[in-house]
Design a protein that fits this description.
Elements (H helix, E strand, L loop, with lengths): L9 E7 L8 E7 L6 E10 L2 H7 L15 E9 L11 E4 L9 H5 L9 H4 L12 E3 L2 E3 L11 E5 L3 E3 L6 H4 L5 H13 L6 E5 L3 H12 L4 E5 L5 H6 L5 E3 L8 H8 L6 E4 L4 H9 L7 E4 L13 H5 L3 E4 L7 H13 L9 E6 L3 H7 L7 E5 L3
Parallel strand pairs: 10-11, 10-13, 11-12, 13-14, 14-15, 16-17
Antiparallel strand pairs: 1-2, 2-6, 3-4, 3-8, 3-17, 4-5, 5-9, 6-7
Helix pairs in contact: 5-6, 8-9
The structure holds nicotinamide-adenine-dinucleotide (NAD), the ligand N[C@@H](CCC(=O)N[C@@H](CSCO)C(=O)NCC(=O)O)C(=O)O and zinc ion (2 copies).
Nicotinamide-adenine-dinucleotide (NAD) binds next to helix 1, helix 5 and helix 6.
Organism: Brachypodium distachyon (Purple false brome)
EC number: 1.1.1.284
Keywords: Cytoplasm, Metal-binding, NAD, Oxidoreductase, Zinc
């Protein structure tokens, strides 16, 4: 049996983003043991989300370099720090960028899934306990990212950010429930609360938008209109519940007018799953007067702002946003895993590519090709 690594520094492979827009470098990274309230996880599978690309590109005001990106993953607990009682080595887990301490003002409010316990530290790439990083390369500290840093064979996270899941669940699949799929489903079920018979518009048919479509279908939406500038997305989108397709490039009119004309005055619900502030405006303005609700899911670059005429809201449209689809991470990610195990939600269908950690730069390139939804990296190579 292998010697225990508990309490030891682990040296392992990780993809380090030394600087914005520079290729990631696979380095031998030293990962310190978990301190009080922390958990060290052996990451087995991680996917790439568009948000990893966004931060790597230098457009994230919270992006710090050098860092280890990655936030859509699954693994096994290697060791736990002092005071951690509800997790133990061997537990199968999904690290979650949205914590749930169950004790802070926000967790207790019953009004949000956002947790205030560790957010100040995760936003500056550090751990709460000593405001330092657990990662280093030859003594140089490397920042954490989103409190998860899953592009590493081992990572250290706060215990309030760890969802313990069914050990039977395939980690190379359910890693997707750490972000994109959960976010799209939750945007529909928790944030918008789409009712049966609703007319829905989804802007952007990547993984997040397709999960919105899947969620809307399961909620009984009567029409699900998918909007994307890449017509290649349309065929695959049918499998996720999209009933009609619109490519803005095929129209001279503003896209909001196209959708309003198609839907007798506008949709009941719209979702922006791109991160483009002009499309966020269009998504709001294609909603029906008096009740239409638009949910912002996409993450827009630093300095970008949304705008519309206040009259749009005065006349009853509602503008909302969602983080992790409103799901409470530790309570509800295990439930999502069960739904997958019971074949009630799709996951495998979003995985278009599988690669090894050593191929991570190729996987980043794939994010810009229409054919890639999610690429899952096996971490052992
Ligand atoms: N709020 C959250 O909690 C949360 C969680 C996950 C991802 N996100 C964000 O959601 C967005 C989508 O993520 P993803 O991983 O699905 O991304 P993705 O890149 O896979 O998908 C984006 C889709 O939008 C399409 N698109 C681009 N510009 C367009 C335009 N002008 N009009 C119509 N379609 C356009 C692309 O062709 C693509 O199909 C990103 O901004 C990501 O950062 C937010
Ligand atoms: N650092 C960015 C914010 C990015 C952002 O909005 N992140 C989403 C999750 S994207 C996952 O792919 C989120 O949940 N935000 C809530 C939070 O971070 O607490 C910026 O500053 O622009
Ligand atoms: Zn994500
Ligand atoms: Zn909390």
């Amino acid at each position: 049996m292998a010697a225990s690594t508990q309490g030891q520094v682990i040296t392992c492979k990780a993809a380090v983003a030394w600087d914005a827009n520079k290729p990631l470098v696979i380095e031998d990274v030293q990962v310190a043991p978990p301190q009080a309230g922390e958990v060290r996880i052996k990451i087995l599978s991680t996917a790439l989300c568009h948000t990893d690309y966004y931060t790597w590109s230098g457009k994230d005001p919270e992006g710090l370099f050098p860092c280890i990106l990655g936030h859509e993953a699954a693994g096994i607990v290697e060791s736990v720090g002092e005071g951690v009682t509800d997790l133990q080595p061997g537990d199968h887990v999904i690290p979650c960028y949205q914590a749930e301490c169950k004790d802070c003002k926000m967790c207790k409010s019953g009004k949000t899934n956002l947790c205030g316990k560790v957010r100040a530290a995760t936003g500056v790439g550090l751990m709460m306990n000593d405001r330092k990083s657990r990662f280093s390369v030859n003594g140089k500290p490397i920042y954490h990212f989103m409190g998860t840093s899953t592009f590493s064979q081992y990572t250290v996270v706060h215990d309030v950010s760890v969802a313990k899941i069914n050990p039977q669940a395939p980690l190379d699949k359910v890693c997707l429930l750490g972000c994109g799929v959960s976010t799209g489903l939750g945007a529909v079920w928790n944030t918008a609360k789409v009712e049966a018979g609703s007319v829905v518009a989804v802007f952007g048919l990547g993984t997040v938008g397709l999960a919105v479509a899947e969620g809307a279908k399961s909620a009984g939406a009567s029409r699900i209109i998918g909007i994307d500038i890449d017509s290649k997305k349309f065929d695959v989108a049918k499998n996720f519940g999209v009933t009609e397709f619109v490519n803005p490039k095929d129209h001279d009119k503003p896209i909001q007018q196209v959708i309003v004309d198609l839907t007798d005055g506008g949709v009941d619900y719209s979702f922006e799953c791109i991160g483009n502030v002009s499309i966020m405006r269009a998504a709001l303005e294609c909603c029906h007067k008096g009740w239409g609700t638009s949910v912002i899911v996409g993450v827009a670059a630093s300095g970008q702002e949304i705008a519309t005429r206040p009259f749009q809201l005065v006349t009853g449209r509602v503008w909302k946003g969602t983080a992790f689809g409103g799901f409470k991470s530790r309570s509800q990610v295990p439930w999502l895993v069960e739904k997958y195990m019971n074949k009630e939600i799709k996951v495998d269908e979003y995985i278009t590519h599988n690669m090894n950690l050593s191929d991570i730069n190729k996987a980043f390139d794939l994010l810009h090709e229409g054919g890639c939804l999610r690429c899952v990296l096996a971490m052992e190579h």
